[in-house]
Amino acid sequence: MSLVEDMLGPWSHRVDELAAEFKDATPFPLVVLDGFVTEEVADGLAAEFPSVDEMARSNDYIFGDKRESPDIGSGGPTTKRYHELLLSDEFASLLSRLSGGRKLFVDSSFHGGGFHQGADGSFLDTHVDFNIHPRHEDWLRVLNILLYLNKDWKPEYDGALLVRSDPKQEPRSVAPLFNRGVIMLTSDNTYHGYRRMSLPAGVTRKSIAAYAYELIPAGSMHVRTTSWAPEDGGLIKQSLARHWTGLAATRDRILRRK
């Protein structure tokens, strides 16, 4: 039995049907998949998830407060199998069919991905992701693949993934429920994030993120860093967000010279 057949939920047998749903979704192409993996796999991933104290703070600066670790390949047995699934040719083929035939592959370094976790007070401001992989100038980021692992998640916790095609829009809300997957396009107008949470002790928002890319000619697209559009935060934060792309580009040029 293949990894896709062994690990993914029944949705993997409806990919061509889901491709139409993905294409026509609002506010931009995405699909929400409950039962993303089998119950056994979901339970195993949740049991093997690292504690929040073991994970480093993400590089979201003032625009987010969460923890992340890309090292899912060194996790427990279920996590290692999920890691193998994400990097398999069969899963890449599934993603390509879902996205309309684009030839895709998942970043094996999980740059910016892997385990994500947020405790009380965690948030991630509205943003669009970078488009070109920082270590591969011919890799264009196309899809975010998110799997939520939050058992007994209550509505009052909030933490919903908020998606919109314009930061001034009223967002579509996707609750981060246990074993719910989201596969979403990433482009110039795929804004997403989640609001600051109020969580009781011992409760965290957990997810595993992977990113799919396609090969393009190096230099054929303008490089976009992560661009922020916070809903609030005061004048200083709003001003930084407006100028962040230019500031980040200057930072990257300086780092490349070192």
Features:
globular, 258 residues, single chain, 6-stranded antiparallel β-sheet, 8-stranded antiparallel β-sheet
Task: Explain what this protein looks like in three dimensions.
The chain has 258 residues and is of the alpha+beta class. The protein has one domain (3-221): Jelly Rolls, CATH 2.60.120. Helices cover 27% and strands 25% of the residues. It contains six helices and 14 strands. It has helices at 3-7, 15-24, 39-48, 77-86, 89-98, 234-257; strands at residues 30-34, 56-57, 64-65, 67-69, 105-106, 114-118, 123-128, 139-148, 161-164, 172-174, 180-185, 191-194, 205-215, 227-228. Strands 1, 2, 4, 5, 6, 8, 11 and 13 form an eight-stranded antiparallel sheet that branches. Strand 9 (161-164) and strand 10 form a beta hairpin.
Please write out the topology.
Blueprint: H1 3-7, H2 15-24, E1 30-34, H3 39-48, E2 56-57, E3 64-65, E4 67-69, H4 77-86, H5 89-98, E5 105-106, E6 114-118, E7 123-128, E8 139-148, E9 161-164, E10 172-174, E11 180-185, E12 191-194, E13 205-215, E14 227-228, H6 234-257
Antiparallel strand pairs: 1-11, 2-4, 3-7, 4-6, 5-13, 6-13, 7-12, 7-14, 8-11, 8-13, 9-10, 9-12
Helix pairs in contact: 3-4
